[in-house]
Amino acid sequence: MPTTPIFWKNKTVDIEYQWVNEERIDSPIIVFLHEGLGSISLWRDFPLNLCKELGVRGLVYSRPAYGWSTPRGVKEIWQNDFMHQQAMDVLPKVLEALQVKEPVWILGHSDGGSIALLAASHHPHLVNGIILMAPHIFVENLTISSIEVAKQQYLHGDLKGKLAKYHQDVDSAFWGWNDIWLNADFKHWNIVQEISSIQCPLLAIQGFEDPYGTMAQIDGIKEVVSQASLVKIPNCGHSPHREQPIIVQKAVKDFLQLHEALI
């Protein structure tokens, strides 16, 4: 995958990125923001399949510390505002580096969904609308319990081996995510009021069997962002695009057509 440099946290980091369906040069752009342990490759073929179905372009990138983007520094510890930094600093710099001049649609999964919410709140001029899958707007006990399980699977099970093929530095990706989510201070993280300023179209998708979050997450979004549309999927866990791709694809297509993003 190609990389593009951005200046972040007083240093230059390389960002792994990929354009999909890029021949549709006059179509809307969807930017895909991966989950807390994700990367370009962990999206698999979902961005390409979705963009071809919709007739749009897609931009997928691995955030710093993930995939083949620059790993975390040896002494770099993420703070409670790590998702704010991604939304308010990294995302705009990636768009600038790749010469994306028009507002984009953002599709974010899990942490990527939270980053999409923050981007729409703080940089409304960059965002046409947002599509969220299993986003977080506050910390639930269920989430913490599942992340603690993931830690044990990484230390004593096969999770590290499974993730290693998707990241050049798997410890950089895993511990950056796991350490901050299990930090006692992070239990107070909450962006509910912060996202109440969002004016753009919003679609939020959640599975009923998600071990990392309940319907309280997207119901909470609807309470403060009145134009939000919700899709609640039975027999679906934390990755709706992998577990129920047909439902997700239809929901996204209907949403974009409703807001005239698709001709």
From TrEMBL:
Q: Domain AB hydrolase-1: where?
A: 28-143
Q: Which InterPro entries match?
A: AB_hydrolase_1, AB_hydrolase_fold, AB_hydrolase_sf
SUPFAM superfamilies xref list: alpha/beta-Hydrolases
Pfam family membership, one: Abhydrolase_1
Question: What GO cellular component term, any one, is given?
Answer: membrane
Q: Which domain of life is it from?
A: Bacteria
Q: Matching Gene3D superfamilies, A to Z?
A: alpha/beta hydrolase (3.40.50.1820)
Q: Give the protein name, as stated in the record.
A: Pimeloyl-ACP methyl ester carboxylesterase
The organism encoding this protein is: Polynucleobacter kasalickyi
